[in-house]
Amino acid sequence: MGISEEIRNKFKGLTSEERSRPATLLKRVQAEYGYVPEDALEVIAGLTGLPLSQIKGVATFYASFSLRPRGTHVIQICQGTACHVKGAKRLKERLESLLNTETGQTTEDGIITLEEVRCIGCCNRAPVVVVDGRTKGRINIRELEPLIRDLRD
Ligand code: FES
């Protein structure tokens, strides 16, 4: 069975209303595969009757969707204005150097994916990182190395 057919089968139990919502379908695929494969975007466009570009737009807008396979752990660094003012750029550069990878990529060992996100609504705790879905506020540059070490343990 090809991946498109497999994905179509996963949507079979959904109501027709659920099937018309791209975000609901994308959420399903993300939960199942850990990312949204290109084929899934096409299947969703076909099911919803919306243009592929619009489905891609939804998938790239929300930080919870990834168009590439992710590592076992995901570190997201907020680059919104409040976090930027509090040194988020330096934190991002430090993470890239510690992980030896660029933002948007996964480490060579496949363990950690580093991503950049826009404001996640915790500006009063800037600068903010999200590690495997858990938000850590007022993150200090010195905390990054132990944080990565913990994820690799
Ligand atoms: S700018 Fe980072 S949480 Fe708002």
Please explain how this structure is put together:
By secondary structure, the protein is an alpha+beta fold. Helices cover 46% and strands 12% of the residues. The chain contains eight helices and four strands, in the order αααααβααβββα. It has a four-stranded mixed beta sheet with strand order 2-1-3-4, with helices on one face. The chain starts with a helix and ends with a helix. The model has no long low-confidence stretch (mean pLDDT 93).
Secondary structure layout plus pairing:
Blueprint: H1 3-10, H2 16-19, H3 22-33, H4 38-48, H5 52-61, E1 73-78, H6 81-85, H7 88-99, E2 112-117, E3 129-131, E4 134-136, H8 144-152
Parallel strand pairs: 1-2
Antiparallel strand pairs: 1-3, 3-4
The chain binds FE2/S2 (inorganic) cluster.
Shape: elongated
**Stretches where pLDDT falls below 50 for ≥5 residues?**
none
SSE pattern, N- to C-terminal? HHHHHEHHEEEH
Alpha-carbon distance between the termini?
Answer: 37 Å
List keywords for this structure.
binds FE2/S2 (inorganic) cluster, 8 helices, alpha+beta, single chain, 2 domains, Glutaredoxin, 153 residues, 4-stranded mixed β-sheet, elongated
Concise synopsis of the structure shown:
The protein is built from 8 helices and 4 strands; from the N terminus they run H-H-H-H-H-E-H-H-E-E-E-H. A 4-stranded mixed sheet has the order 2-1-3-4, with helices on one face. It starts with a helix and ends with a helix.
